[in-house]
Amino acid sequence: MPKVAKELSAIEVKRLTHMGSANNETFAVGGVAGLLLQVTQNGARTWLLRTKVGDKRREIGFGSYPEVSLAVARERAKEAKAGIRVGIDPVEHKRVVRAAVAAEQKRGLKFDNAVDQHLGAKLSEFKNIKHRAQWVSTLKTYAIPILGPMLVSEITVQDVLLVLKPIWHDKTETAKRLRGRIERVLSSATVMGHRTGANPARWKDNLEELLPAPSKITKPENQPAVRIEDITDWFSKLKMLDGVGSRALEFLTLNASRSGEVRGAVWSEIDMERKLWTIPAVRMKMDREHIVPLSEPALELLTRLPRIKGNPLIFPAPRGGELSDMTLSATMRRMHEREVLEGRIGFLDRRSGRRAVPHGLRSTFRDWVGDKTTFDGYMAELALAHKIGDKTEAAYLRADMIEKRRLMMHAWSQMLNGQKIGEIMFVIKDE
User: Fold this and answer.
1) Domain shared by 53 and 100, yes or no
2) pTM for this predicted structure
């Protein structure tokens, strides 16, 4: 039997020195057969494990002493021997790992890095900081925990499914957007030469075969709207409230606008002389410039607002930045709650029975146009900045249509204010 080396203590190992021979000297430290401390002539000390792998003799290094302690060296030696017993050559394994790391560093791109690169390259395309934040948020929340450490070259359809399946039914809209964002990141990686082949996140002839169509598992639901018969009362109570948020909500209602369009509005977009509000494409959902003919009540509201030096926003937050969407929502919530406290039902959506929200005011406007007037439906869609078809939209963007839309918005403002609607170029439908 081979001689079993004495198991040296940490103090004893510390005292081991070169004895003056012409070669490096080794000292068996015990605890694990074959574990040695090698000492050079100049006093450098390193750990070695001499052992057999199959029929080959191996010397496996574990680092220098004292950076690697005696206890750690023994633990590493035990792990190496355990690997050998199941057929793993520690030297060959180390070489393969190093080669893989080197190859990855040379050619590989991980998904989380690909996200950063894509966002950096496409930054100018994002309409605003909020949109960019939404991009980052969805990817960070759902995709990066699974795909983040993976090389983009190795991501498969099954990997993408692992991300999408848990939220496809319960958060369908979010999942749809997430799929598109993963597809764009991987597409960029392909163009940069980091992957080849079909995009595993594409929908057509790919994921559509494995996931139900979003239209089949979600039902479009309008935002809760104030009922037409309640809107005059609601608007009169809104005008009695103080605060920038209330004025922003009033302006939103008069123009049937989106919250973000109003909250981000700046004075340079307003032409008081021509009575127009021109919203640039960069701030619009459809990425198209939108012209709003302003009614007299909308113009009067603007003239009453203070202009803050150095702040271009029409409806600035108290601290100077842009109002939050929550500010407008909170105003409507408080109005509803006050009604309930006074023994009334509040401002509820006719269809769902839910409390009305700011975005639902656009539905109230659309219902009023369709149910109570003979204004052209296409004109209402244009006022809402909806896409209505290229040819039709082109016809409705003529200059004279701006003035016809102005008549429509004037009638809407009269109805909101409980005024008798004058003789203008439309017919009020009989009740």
Assistant:
1) yes
2) 0.55
Number of domains in the chain: 3
Whether 130 and 66 share a structural domain:
no
What pLDDT shows up at residue 33? 86
The three-class DSSP label of residue 276 is strand
Q: For the segment 332-358, what is each residue's pLDDT rounded down to a tens digit?
A: 999 999 999 999 999 999 988 999 999
Report in angstroms the alpha-carbon separations of 431 from 6, 227, 372, 373: 105, 15, 8, 11
Instruction: Output b/e per residue, 148-165; b: 16+ Cβ within 10 A.
Output: eebbbbebebebbbebbe
Is residue 5 one of the residues assigned to a domain?
A: no
- Tell me the per-residue pLDDT of 391-431, one tens digit each, with 9 for 90 and over: 555 555 555 588 889 999 999 999 999 986 554 434 444 44
Distance CA 219, CA 237 (A): 33
Domain endpoint, select from 170, 194, 217: 217
> Is residue 338 located within the same domain as residue 246?
yes
Full domain range(s) for residue 68:
10-106
Higher pLDDT, 166 or 286: 166
